[in-house]
Amino acid sequence: MAQGGRSGGIIEGITLGPSQAGPVYRQIHARIRSAITDGRLPPGARLPSWNSLAAQLGVARGTVKAAYDWLAGEGLVVGRGPAGTIVNPALRLSPSGDGPSGPSPLAADPLDLDQPAPVRPFQPGLPAVDAFPRKLWCRLVARHASRLTEAAMGYPDPAGDPELRTALATYLGVARGIACTAGQIFVTAGFAGALDLISRALLRPGDRVWMEDPGFPRTRQGLVLAGAELVPIPVDGEGLDVRRGMARAPGVRLVVVTPSHQAPLGMRLSLPRRLELLRWAGASGAWIVEDDYYGEFRLEGPPLPALKSLDASGRVIYVGTFSKVLMPALRLGYAVLPPEAVERFAAVASCLAPAQAPPIQRAVAEFMAAGHLGRHLRRMRSLYVRRRDALLAALREACDDRAVVDAGHAGMNLLLRLPPGTDDVALARRAAAAGLGPVPLSTWAVEAGCGPGLLLSFTNIPVEAAARYAQSLAALLPASRRKGDAIGRQASARSTLLLEGASRRYEGDG
């Protein structure tokens, strides 16, 4: 309790007012963050409750909650349920007391999925860069750059180039079952640009948002920076637990969901859950953001129809990206809106920086319209099945009983589940120092007990290199403490059967 008393005294010294810079929740965040990083609030110190601090400062409870959520998104504080909010006990301060010994959670980090760096083995979020059709792509870009007219040298359409939006409408209708017009599509700077556009158009500080737990850390951070109050909703074998969400926070503004391939566990949102979510959103007026980040790369059979294809109430905003299909460097994504939301989004988009220049967008449009995208996706699925199978076998041999490889919902990743108590963050940092790029599973969770693990991408590991990289990773694993349990072995056996079936289906697919 001494720590709790100390933290309360420090936070009581917060002063707010019009002379301070920025919104009130940012002022609160900045002062608590400063107290943590300079050592005045040590790891484990308890913060006042939202109600207590709000009453003390004379502000709304939601304002304090927004500041706490931002701190949680940075990894500086953690919630302990009835025990309140405390400074992250795992936070390590530098010897000088000037701040955390590691980089800020919002700064570049060796485990950051979007950090500019050479492609590392096991690094999630990247397609097979060695298999990208560079010559074809360069030819298309050069062609459209040479066609740049004087009229096209002015300010581009903030909603995106009409040619790309038309190509996307055609593609989505065939590949994802989404009936839409080009006018409903907004081209963005990747998924991050789409989330920013949605947040600015629909959210106000303090609005509550459902997010899958575990879920993509960058989505969580982006929503916190937008001032949203995040409500983590657990997932199970059928995906997002809609009833748990309705019981915990029925009055939310937005839901972010990954129905085709849950990030990071990989299960799909079942049809009953999809219909339940859509009915609830239609009745409550909530918006659903469908993040379809792996929609094209379901390796066990054909891609699933998008959630938006079932949306009769106009509550789903479908978000796609070219980062996994082509390459992240394009920074191209898109959002498909219900017709009634187009005008509102157009007003917001006109104030934001648009996506890539028109020649790049038109090169992508031709890549799609000429059939190159379909052929590229077929080649990549076949390649990914071979690379996945090779890495799966190599990991199972190299890791023996020290970890269980979960490939039941592979997508573009395998999940290496580690024994309880393993520090997967420390393990991922050791792997990064060795030139590898796995991502710790625990950083994706807020409250969920998903256990420790490593997300491992197989997309950039050639078949002939699988054994070498598997052995390099296995050398970093802790010594065996117990044999893998029966459940893990059964899951592994099921995964093998699924993968063998997928390999047969895609064998010879060019």
Automatic annotation (TrEMBL):
UniProt KW Transcription keyword: yes
Query: Which Pfam families does the record match to this protein?
Result: Aminotran_1_2 (PF00155), GntR (PF00392)
Q: By its UniProt entry, which SUPFAM superfamilies does this protein fall under? A: PLP-dependent transferases (SSF53383), Winged helix' DNA-binding domain (SSF46785)
Which branch of life, at top level?
Bacteria
Map out region (Disordered) in residue numbers: 90-109
Keyword Iron-sulfur found: no
Write down the InterPro entries for this protein, in alphabetical order: Aminotransferase_I/II_large (IPR004839), HTH_trans_reg/aminotransferase (IPR051446), PyrdxlP-dep_Trfase (IPR015424), PyrdxlP-dep_Trfase_major (IPR015421), Tscrpt_reg_HTH_GntR (IPR000524), WH-like_DNA-bd_sf (IPR036388), WH_DNA-bd_sf (IPR036390)
Domain HTH gntR-type: start-end pairs:
22-90
Could you state a single Gene Ontology molecular function term?
transaminase activity
Question: What are the alphabetically sorted keywords of the record?
Answer: Aminotransferase, DNA-binding, Pyridoxal phosphate, Transcription, Transcription regulation, Transferase
What's this protein's family per the entry? In the C-terminal section; belongs to the class-I pyridoxal-phosphate-dependent aminotransferase family.
Mind telling me what this protein is named?
A: PLP-dependent aminotransferase family protein
Protein species of origin: Benzoatithermus flavus
List the taxonomic lineage.
Answer: Bacteria, Pseudomonadati, Pseudomonadota, Alphaproteobacteria, Geminicoccales
